[in-house]
């Protein structure tokens, strides 16, 4: 994803998530102050452990231990905090974050890297979204029309193909023909958990298009790959319905 895209999504999240007070403690949820210019977009901190990009779909979640008083050289990073602003200090650089309210920005966090304009179906309850990460070797396909206002490249495509449905994997757009290649890469792992695909589909996408994608994931009569539809639950988070 380009820097402009990252900045755009980050600004949406900062504007959409009000600052949360927490008595000047480091524990909590944090967003990069200059979106797209930090090593990580979000931080979740608890008990001296930082979980980076915890809620970002398709992210590689990492864990960092930190030192808040600059005494322990064995820690991964040093942390400074001033009110609602937190700074991660490395040997040669630093990144600044602002406190945010996770309850108000959870879904925005999930789709910080999305080039697709997604409005998910709403349900009362579903399986926790993160269960697919802990139980399976999971890939995510985002399906829908392109967002506008991200950058010139996306806007030009959206204007040229206003009614077209696009598919995003990680931070790139792919064609139908690329799905089989993506599945081969996902399956190319010995002694790994069973593969699973989460379909993040805008609610206005015709079911016929989703059916084509499903057949490309499991060609013929194969059901080797588990497939879940991603939905938004009543509690505001996203969840999974097995397809």
Any key phrases for this structure?
globular, 24% helix, single chain, Lipocalin, 32% strand, 2 domains, 6 helices, 7-stranded mixed barrel, 243 residues, 8-stranded mixed β-sheet, alpha+beta
Low-confidence stretches: none
- Helix and strand element order: HEEEEEEEHEEHEHEEHEHEE
Question: What percent strand?
Answer: 25-35%
Taken from the alpha-carbon principal axes, the silhouette is globular
| Helical content (DSSP H or I, runs of 4+) | 10-25%
Terminal residue distance = 29 Å
Largest sheet: 8 strands, mixed
Structural class: alpha+beta
Mean pLDDT: 86
Count the strands?
15
The total tally of domains equals 2
Rg, alpha carbons: 19 Å
Please give the count of helices: 6
Account of the protein in words:
This protein starts with a helix and ends with a strand. The relative contact order is 0.15. Strands 8, 9, 10, 11, 12, 13, 14 and 15 form an eight-stranded mixed sheet that branches. A seven-stranded mixed β-barrel has the order 1-2-3-4-5-6-7. The longest helix is centred in the first third of the chain and has 14 residues. The mean pLDDT is 86. With 243 residues, it is of the alpha+beta class. It is built from six helices and 15 strands. The chain folds into two domains: 108 residues, Lipocalin (Beta Barrel); 121 residues, no CATH class. Helix 1 packs antiparallel against helix 2.
């Amino acid at each position: 994803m380009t820097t402009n895209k990252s900045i755009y999504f980050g600004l949406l999240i900062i504007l959409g998530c009000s600052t949360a007070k927490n008595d000047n403690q480091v524990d909590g949820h944090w967003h990069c102050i200059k979106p797209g210019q930090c090593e990580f977009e979000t931080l979740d901190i608890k008990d001296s452990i930082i979980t980076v990009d915890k809620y970002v779909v398709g992210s590689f979640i990492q864990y960092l231990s930190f030192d808040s008083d600059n005494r322990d050289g064995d820690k991964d990073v040093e942390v400074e905090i001033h009110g609602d602003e937190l700074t991660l200090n490395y040997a040669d650089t630093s990144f600044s974050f602002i406190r945010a309210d996770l309850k108000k920005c959870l879904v925005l966090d999930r789709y910080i890297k999305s080039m697709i304009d997604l409005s998910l179906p709403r349900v009362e309850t579903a399986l926790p979204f993160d269960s697919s990460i802990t139980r399976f070797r999971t890939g995510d396909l985002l399906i829908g029309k392109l967002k506008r206002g991200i950058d010139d490249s996306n806007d030009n495509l959206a204007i040229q193909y206003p009614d077209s449905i696009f598919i995003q994997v990680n931070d790139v757009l792919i064609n139908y023909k690329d799905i089989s290649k993506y599945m081969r890469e996902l399956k190319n792992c010995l002694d790994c958990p069973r593969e699973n695909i989460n379909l993040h589909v805008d609610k206005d996408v015709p079911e016929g298009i989703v059916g084509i994608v499903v057949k490309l994931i499991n060609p013929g009569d194969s059901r080797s790959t588990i497939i879940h539809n991603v939905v938004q639950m009543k509690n505001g988070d996203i969840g999974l319905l097995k397809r």
